[in-house]
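Quick one: structure tokens for this chain, please?
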Amino acid sequence: MSLSVIAFLGIFQIGLSFLLYSIAIKYVTAIESSLIIFLEPILNPLWVFLVIGELPALPATIGGILVIVATPARAIISCRTIIDHANNKRCASKKNITTIPDSCE
């Protein structure tokens, strides 16, 4: 009986979810796909609370909130760094032009 439950969970809970994720990843950005992967295990206690009513412990709640806030913040900071780097590169190539756009000053 235990082996059949493990096989069922392995096929449907893990296997099917990663199959669907690998199909869906073609239709979202890299940031969205990384947020899904990072937030999924953090949100598990929320789903347990909503379905079963079990309250997570205080350290788990604090840790979950910290990760939920830090993950998108890190992704946003990373994107801004990449955009700033691209703008600086674009502006550096325009240094020989007499008028530089305001975004390059």
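The helical segments are 2-24, 30-52, 58-93.
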